[in-house]
Design a protein that fits this description.
It is a single chain. The protein has 160 residues and is α+β, with helices and mostly antiparallel strands. Helix content is 32%, strand content 21%. The strands form two sheets. Strands 1-3-2 form a three-stranded antiparallel beta sheet. A three-stranded antiparallel beta sheet has the order 5-4-6, with no helix packed on it.
């Protein structure tokens, strides 16, 4: 309910960001899981996914520290926030079947264009980084080139 109230009050979010534990690419996490669970038979042959299922507490602690650092030092940095100054945000942590957490964030960035208020050209020009190109996504999951969908389910969101 909170996110619905936020959208009603603040308007559509500027960005949707997902961050994962990226256990497949974290040699340090895999090594740490093997060390703290050294007494488990066959630990050296286990995949990153199996290690996450084996020790969800350690994975959750690792992820929480990573998420907090990314949010505090990159997204909401006092000096140089990566997307611009964050006016407000909403996040939700979910767990995949293999036990690895990920977080979905809605970010409202100050002074950015809004679909329906600003021109389509202005919305398309906005991108936190020049090599990013926005695309439009309808609630029916159709990727669009225009600002309207044939299904008429609801509002269209910009994604990067």
């Amino acid at each position: 309910m909170k996110v619905r109230w936020m959208i009603r009050t603040l308007g559509p979010p500027t960005l949707f960001v997902t961050c994962s534990a990226a256990e497949w690419f974290s040699d340090a996490l895999v090594s740490h899981l093997r060390t703290v669970n050294a007494t488990v038979p066959g630990i050296e042959k286990m995949s990153a996914a199996e290690l996450c299922v084996l020790d969800p507490v350690t994975v959750s602690i690792h992820f929480q520290k990573k998420r907090s650092a990314i949010f505090q030092k990159i997204i909401r940095s006092k000096k140089t926030p990566i997307f611009g100054e964050v006016a407000d945000y909403f996040w939700r942590i979910e767990y995949q079947a293999r036990g690895a957490p990920h977080v979905h964030c809605l970010l409202w960035i100050k002074d950015t264009p809004v679909i329906g208020r600003d021109s389509p050209e202005t919305v398309k020009e906005y991108a936190p980084f020049h090599h990013w190109r926005p695309f439009l996504l309808c609630p029916c999951r159709a990727r669009l080139e225009q600002f309207a969908c044939r299904c008429h389910i609801g509002p269209v969101a910009v994604s990067f």
